[in-house]
Amino acid sequence: MTGMMLYLSLGLMVLTVLSNRYWRRQLEGLRQGQLRIREKMEEVGKDVEDIATAYSQVTQKHAEAEKRAQKAEQDMQAALNELEARQTAPVVRYHVFDRSEPRPGRFWEAAVRHVPSDATVMTGQRGWLGIRRCLLTAETEREVRERVSARYPRKAGFQVLEVVPCRVAGLSVNRIPELSTFRRSAPPEEAARPPRRAAGGR
User: Fold this and answer.
1) Does residue 145 share a domain with residue 62?
2) pTM of the full predicted structure?
3) Are 41 and 75 within one domain?
4) Secondary structure of residue 70 in the 3-state scheme
5) Whether 27 and 75 share a structural domain
6) pLDDT, tens digit, for every residue of 58-105?
7) Structure letter (DSSP) for residue 187
8) Domains in the chain: how many in total?
9) pLDDT in tens, 156-187
10) Is residue 60 part of a domain?
11) Which of 45, 69, 97, 202 could disulfide-pair with 136, CB 3.0 to 4.6 Å?
């Protein structure tokens, strides 16, 4: 009996050791599986964060694009309204005051009215009706008034109503004479020099 008990005890011990090793391997396998699952979950979490960031950026860009499109539509509508207003508005004619020569200053707009009367019928301005707007270049408003008044005197029936900076877009005077849009006048000494005679002439 004692021998059988020893064999049974030894057998149980061997089974216990084998069982412990088996379950330890199973537990180790489960731990490894959990680690792999955790790593995959972290990777998936990073991917989800990246996707959320990309989605947020796309949403922001879409909102900005909608704002730009809305602003473009408003600008287009404003431009159409302005075009319609300009088409229906009366034509404003400008008369160029200056000759084609360089002159320092900026562009000005002078509104001049002519009131014909018996004393001014000889001015040669019978066709002048209403207000004319003249464009000229000058340094100051005072210079503009002096030049306009000198050409269109009050005693001849003219009246300077308004002098303002030119409202016509794109008009500017370059301070460098070589780059000016006006033609340069001849130097005084060249203008005063008599013309040369042709060779062989008398």
Assistant:
1) no
2) 0.45
3) yes
4) helix
5) yes
6) 999 999 999 999 999 999 999 999 888 878 877 778 888 766 566 778
7) P
8) 2
9) 888 899 999 888 776 766 555 554 444 444 44
10) yes
11) 97
For residue 134 the two structure tokens come to 């003249």
> Does any domain span residue 192?
no
User: Parallel, antiparallel, or unpaired: how do β-strands 106-114 and 131-138 relate?
Assistant: antiparallel
66 or 118, higher pLDDT: 66
pLDDT at 199: 44
CB-CB contact of 171 with 136 (8 Å): no
What type of residue sits at position 25? R
Cα-flanking dihedrals φ and ψ of residue 159, to 5°? -145, 125
Please give the C-alpha separations between residue 176 and each of 105, 120, 172, 182, in angstroms, as whole numbers: 12, 42, 12, 11
Do 151 and 95 meet the contact criterion of CB atoms below 8 Å apart? Answer: no
Instruction: Give the domain extent around 174.
Output: 94-185
Residue 199 lies in a domain: no
Do 148 and 134 contact (CB within 8 A), yes or no?
Answer: yes
Closest CA relative to residue 167, chosen from 135, 126, 121, 193? 135
Q: What are phi and psi of 62, to 5 degrees?
A: -65, -40
The verdict on residue 198 lying in a domain is no
| Claim to verify: residue 142 and residue 123 sit in the same structural domain | yes
